[in-house]
Amino acid sequence: MTITVVTNDVEVSRPVKLTLADHSGAHVILTVSIENRPPITHVFDFEVGELRVPLSLPKGKYHCSLTVQAFKHGALNGMYASEILFNKKSAGRADGNIDPPATFDVGFEDFNLTVK
């Protein structure tokens, strides 16, 4: 089964701050791709946490995508609850569980980021 990633377009003012947040019991990898920039990836391993990244983006509209990968192994369970925010505005999220007998799952979705 594929992870369902729900995204929405966001509009923010400069300076831009990206937040990757996770409240999972699985090993989760979040990757954000922003048009014309290298992907930003962070690994959450059975921990609640956030990664905050300042972005130097000129004004404009950017095509983006969010990829969520979740892995169940060892003592980790298969629950994932992840979110991406720009200036505290939600651009995407994924919540669910890896269905047995699978031990991993992945999903992605596109969205637009407008920087004013």
Question: Can you lay out the helices and strands and say which pair or pack?
Answer:
Layout: E1 6-7, E2 10-12, E3 16-23, E4 27-34, E5 40-45, E6 48-55, E7 60-71, E8 79-86, E9 89-97, E10 104-115
Parallel strand pairs: 2-10
Antiparallel strand pairs: 1-9, 3-6, 3-8, 4-5, 4-7, 7-10, 8-9
Short description:
Helices cover 0% and strands 66% of the residues.
Explain what the structure shows.
- The chain is an all-beta fold.
- It has one domain: Lipoxygenase-1 (Sandwich), CATH 2.60.60.
- 0% of the residues lie in helices and 66% in strands.
- Strand 4 and strand 5 form a beta hairpin.
- The termini are far apart.
- The model has no long low-confidence stretch (mean pLDDT 94).
Helix content: under 10%
Mean pLDDT figure: 94
Distance between the termini: 38 Å
How would you classify the helix and strand content by structural class? mainly beta
How does the major sheet shape up? 5 strands, antiparallel
Main features:
116 residues, mainly beta, Lipoxygenase-1, 5-stranded antiparallel beta sheet, 5-stranded mixed beta sheet, elongated
